[in-house]
Predict the 3D structure of the following.
Amino acid sequence: MNKLARLPTSGRTRRTSGRRLRARRRQSRYFAFLSYSHRDEHLAEWLHTQLEDFHVPRTLVGQISDNGPIPKRLRPIFRDEHELAAATDLGEEIQEALANSQFLIVLCSPDAARSRWTNAEIATFKRTRPNGCVLAAIAAGEPFASEIPGRESEECFPPALRERYDGRGRPTGKRAEPLAADLRDSGDGRRLGFLRLVAGMLGVGLDDLVHREATRRQRRLALLAAASLAGMAVTSTLAVTAIQARDSAREQRRQAEGLIEFMVGDLRNKLEPIGKLDVLDGVGSRVLAYYSKQDTGELADDALVQRSQALNLMAEVAFNRGNLKEAEQLYRQAMAGTSEAVRRSPDDPQRIFDHAQNVFYVGETARYAGRPAEAETAWREYKRLADRMSALAPDNLKYRMEVLYANEDVGISLYNQHRFVEAQRQFEGAAGPMGNLASLYPSNMTYQKEYANLQAWIADTQRSQGNFDAAIAMRQQQIAGLNHLMDVAPDSEVRKYLITAHQGLGAALRERGQSDRALEEMRAAVGEAENLIPVEPHNALWKSYAATARLDLSRMLLSLGRRDEAAQETSVGCRLAAGLPSTFAISARRRVATSCAMMRSLLALANGSTDEALSFGDRAVASARSEHSEDPITDLYRVALMSRLVGDVRKRSGDSVGASAEWNSALAQLPANVAERPWEMNERLQLLQRLGRQEQAAAVAARLDSMGYRRLN
């Protein structure tokens, strides 16, 4: 989410984005004008009622804030209840209400962002009330999503809200950062978001308002208690019964929360290693069902953290099933809870640790959604939190491990942006201390697996820079360590690492011209993938690993002229790909679908069936264009590869003009000023050679030869 000017959290003089929240007082008929899309009418009605029914705490009434004297009530609030779809412009009543409102509150959602009339109301208010205050209440969608390719439909801010107006009410064309309260469950939630909105209009700090509201609530409770005591004098029997019921309820809650602690703790730890996603999902659902009956804002610290742990658990299940959008929403909800816990106890390292886990997973979902720059931002915040908790408890090994994890994660985000030298420094900086821990604690599986993971990343950065021998050696060390782990304590994660380790080693060996050894490694990857599926037959992630391993093996077999074996592996891989459920991550499904179409096209071309090859080739191009992986630069090379294949088919069928058009299109896909990996350089080389641009091709070939790269067609 892009940085927004948030409504204040404490102190009346707190600055937001370099300016005070200030709405100049003038004689106003309405306290605020509520602008919204009529598709959001239900939420608008709720917000309107809450605002008009709100009683300003008595201790605040009459005080002078940045927005003037604080009133007793926030009345009246103007809300247009008429549909304007058939009108040609804003009615006179609407324009008059806008001109006579001190504040404009915009209920923001994708529907509001697309609403002509919501945008017109904002523009009119900014023109007629240049010193008025516009407040955004986010109901759904994402602010500034229109600036993120592929997420434009999620934009919740109307255009006029995103544009700055000058002191004379004229649009400047510059970006505005509206003052925003977040009503979404993944943000502040309705209660806290509403109070943040009220605090903004009153010109007081949120903490100040919440404290006074809590004081008033306690006063009411005290009065109730006094009344109860008076009643007890008359009805002591009823009082004793009530006390017993209260004690019983407390005991039931204590037992329920103890069960929940077991469910999100010990039970989770026992089920995760064997990949029992359905059981974990059921655990998380039952926990949230318990907490759904309670006001989140009233939860004690421990209960607040437990709720976030349950959200984190369900997000993890969604992530493992490839439901990235659902996972990100759940992680953000969990993060909102742990952020509140940190706010309550800013120097508690355990609270910071819990919050850091959710920050990490927000970055992880961004990574797998193909937004590496966003992942880097999240993970640098994760690194800051890790450094903070480690500084608070320097002798705590768990917190020191978080610092190493954070260094690794920042390296991953750099790698996915093709910043390989920076990434290698990050990985090696974490690998040294992690390797020492793995040596000192050989029975600690976390240290062993994490060290193996770092070895994989180092090998990939070495291979990406053309250091094949170093990459091969590192992969061999990694596989040896993973095989040892499987002998000691086999689990799904170790086997998953083994699949990619064998694939990575096989690719590096093939690029060095060691085809027989490369085939052995690719077959080993297939074997490990097939062993994963029986653990949980419905796990789509395992099936996608198996499909990818089969299709990678088939491509290598075909490049070596072993057509029949390649056809057999392609058939199995494509069958697995077709069986992936629609709920699985769409980017992963498209990726294996692209590989399947490519292999079928290559096999048809090898068999002389150019019509069939062209049909599958066109399908591969279309599928590749729809891919959005964790590495968006790699996606471009995937499109180029598929377009090159279609060009080859057209050339074979006698369509030289069509072939050249495809190859030129493919070459145009390749980005400039980006560090290319050797296999990406080879893709550029193949296209240059086909287009007869021999001088440029020779320069690329010389670079590949200097690395010892065995060029592939």
The domain at 491-583 is CATH 1.25.40.10 (Serine Threonine Protein Phosphatase 5, Tetratricopeptide repeat). The first helix runs from residue 41 to 53. The radius of gyration is 30 Å. The mean pLDDT is 83.
